[in-house]
Structures are given as structure tokens and as C-alpha cells.
Amino acid sequence: MTRTAARARRSAGLGPFTRVALVLVVVLPNVIGAGVVLVLAAWVLPTETLSQDPGALTRNLVVFGPYLFVAVVVGALWGHRRMRVPALPEDADDRAREKQFLRVRRVVLRGPLRLALVQTVLWVVAAALFVLLNVFSSGRIGFQVGATVVLGGIATVSITYRLVEVVLRSSARRVLTERPPSGSMLPGVLMRTVGGWLFGTATPLLGVLLAGIAALTIGGYTLERLAIVVVVLAGVALVLGGTVITLTAMSTHAPVLAVRRALKKVESGDLDADVPVFDTTELGLLQAGFNRMVDGLRERERVRDLFGRQVGEDVARHALENDVELGGEVREVAVLFVDLVGSTTLAAIRPPNEVVELLNEFFAVVIDVVERHGGWINKFEGDAALAVFGAPTALDDAAGSALAAGRVMGARLAEEVFASSDSLGAGIGISAGEAVAGNIGDRRRYEYTVIGDPVNEAARLCDLAKDVEGAVVASGAAVSRAGDEASRWCTHGTRQLRGRTEETELHVPARRGGRPTAGVDDEVAESSGASPADSTEGALQSN
What we know:
The chain has 18 helices and ten strands. By secondary structure, the protein is of the alpha+beta class. Strand 9 (511-512) and strand 10 form a beta hairpin.
């Protein structure tokens, strides 16, 4: 059992405040309802036939007070018993706690029905008692009193049912948070709406209808008396109907509003939005379903983020927006290959955690520089990395971006990673040209990559750069394809690279009087707080 589940189970029971609130919302409406029924039965509805039995009113009043007191006490005790769950001992095992949670959950979710049943029984007993109290002296009075008690009881129980739902909402949220509803445990939205009309509107109108039928069939109503009856019952219908419909609308509006608020958060990009599940109808299923949907969106975003970190954001976006097709297309790209020098010796004399920390610092600079210049890391190969510019997202000046990234990377690595170690360094090779970019492999496992001569040439130049001052070498093909960035590079002779039949023209960052040319990116200086020229000059001269 997880800590969260245990905490939810411990807090799922009814607290003292909830129990007091339940007593108030059950007792007060029933006392008020009983008072309204008394007024209607004793002074509004009676006709001239009441004068035939002068003691009827006194007899009913004498019985009304004691029964109301007994009904309140019995209802409170009975309701408390129906809503009570015995406490578990502290040393109870997980199985006993699970059963306890299910009992509490059942009591909370079925609480409105349980308390409504208690009240219904007491109102039925009251109706039977007052019918027997009057029917032997006058069948008409007995029917009149009994109908008034029944209709008043229906209206009162319906209002109390809605109020109990509101009071138990926080408890329902706690038990449904751990275990959302799998089906409706209480009447659904349709029955809730129809019940609101039935108990709030149809019941008092039925009283008006019965009064009219009695006046037409039995008689005994004067025009003035009938008008009073209709006005009073219509007023009760307006008040009662408005109360029941309002409570019914609130019980439907609250869960929908909760989902709507959470939906706005999701629309704004907040995937931490969560809806408290407190409704046991189809709306509760909607709340729980929304949470499951957001969980799925969070998981999808997490996978997408991990996917982007693995293959690069541009490649991930390209894969998600397009169908998977094996093969590739010929594109104009620039390639930067960077390899750490001295890591093998370092691994032999340093603990593994220090080696990993150094590699992370090294790759952090590499990734930052490449992304700032519009490229992406195609792959890591041990202590080396291959960066591509111009695929899958096209760049106006892919070669210029790669050359600028190489200059800045060499300076930043020398200053931020290798400044404290004379045995460490890095070689950076840059090339450009046409290459095939696409998905290579099989539909079961593939990789977006670039294949072609620029990749091979950049790798060879990287090996060569390890022995060149500044440790950054570019091919003539890369410089010839670059825009303004080409002016910051100068020739460095030619060399026949391994595996090639022709010599390759070499270029390195231009230097004047032992200093690099102007125009080095400001980001080099930002990392140390120095001016761009000073920062880059010191970094390159340290080589």
C-alpha cells in the first residue's frame, strides 16, 4: 500500500464538521417542512366540514408536537448509525484497511440515499398516523391531511437529498480521488434532472390539482376558500420548485465547471491541471476521464521530450509531423565533428564519476554552441559528437553556421573545459556538401541521419585538427559555400586525407598578429563575463 493510498484511506471518513453539517441539513429542512404541512393541513386546506368535528384540530396539534420531537431524535440517531463506520485498530493489516476503505466509500457515496430512506420512513409513518387520527371522524379530513403530509414529505426529502449531496462533496472527493467511479452508484444526470422537476414542480402542482378535483367532486369549498388554497399552493410550488431546481442545477453545474476550469489550464499549456472527482453520476465519470486524458497528455509530452532529447528537437518534430518513410533525400548540409583528446588516459587514472562529469561538461558546451547556430546533434560516439546543419530543417547558410559554431566551440571548450588541464583537448572538423538525409534502418528500428562525403571528410578533419594550433580545421568546400563567415577563415595548406585520392584544401580561423579576427560571437564572452575579443583571444592563445 502506497503512502498516498494510506493517507487517502485514513482521511476518507466523515469528520466532526461533516457530521454536524449533516445533522443540520437533515433536521432543519424536515422541521420546516413539518411546520409548512401543519399550516396547510390545519388552517389553509380545511373546509366547512372541519366544523363538524371541533376537536379535530386540537387532536392533531396534540399529536404533532410529540411526534415531531420523536421523529427528530429517532431520525438523528438512525441517520448517525447508517453513516457510521467503526474505527480500525492501529495494528490492522492492509487487507483490513482495504475493506475499511470500501465500507467508508460505500457510506459516503450512498449517504444521500441512506438518509433519504430514513426520512421517507418517518414521513410515511407520520402520514399513516395522521390519517388514522382523522379518518374515523371524517374520511374527507383524513384524506386531506394524509395527502398534505405525503406531498410535504416528498418535497422535504427531495430538498434534503440535494443538501446532503453538497455536504458530502468533500468526502466524496477524497474517496473518489483514490478510486474514481467505474459506474454510476447514484441516479444519473437524467434521473437527477427528472427528479428535480418531479419533486420540485410536479408535487406542489399535484396538490393544486387534488384541491381542484375535491372542489369539483366533493364540494364544500367556497370561491374565496378555493382561491386561498390555489394561491397558497401556487406560492409553495414557486418557492419549493425554485429551491429544488436550483439545488439540482448546482449539483450538475459544479462538476461541469470544474472540468471547464481544468480544460482552460490545459488549453494554456498547463498539463498539471487536475479535476477533483466528487460526482457519482456520469459527470463523475467525465471528471475521472478528464484526469486520465491529462495523464495521457503528460505521458505523451514526457515521451516527446525524451524523444527530442534523444534525437534532437528538429528531428523529433519532423518525425511527429510526417509519416515514417525509410530512405532519404539529397540535401546541401554542413557537418561538424568534434572529438575529445585525452579521455582514454583520463579514464585510466581518474574515477569513473569524474570522467562522466567531464564528458557532461564537454557535451554541454558542444550542444549549446550547436543549437545556438541552428544545428542539431545527430549522434554521440563515445567522447565524440556529430553535428549537422541544414537537415532536417533547412538553413540559408548551413556552411556559415557550421563554421561559426566551430570557431566558438573551440574557444569555449578551451576556456570552460580544458583551462585547468594540459592533457585534455578536442579536435573539431568541419565540412559541407551534398549528403543523403533520411531514415535509415527498418520500420521496427530506424534512425534519422546523414550519409555522404561531408560526414567522412569532417571526421578526417577532426583527427587532423588535433595536431593543428587552435584545434579547428574546415575544408575548402565548407568555406567556399559560406557567406560572410568565410572572411573569418584563412587557408592552411592542403592535405590528402585518409581514404581520399585528392588533396583537401584546409582552412583555420583567421588570425592577425597572433590574434583571431574580429567578429567572434558574443556568447563566448558571455560565459566568462569578458569582452568578446578578450575572451576569444585568451582562449585561442592558450592552445
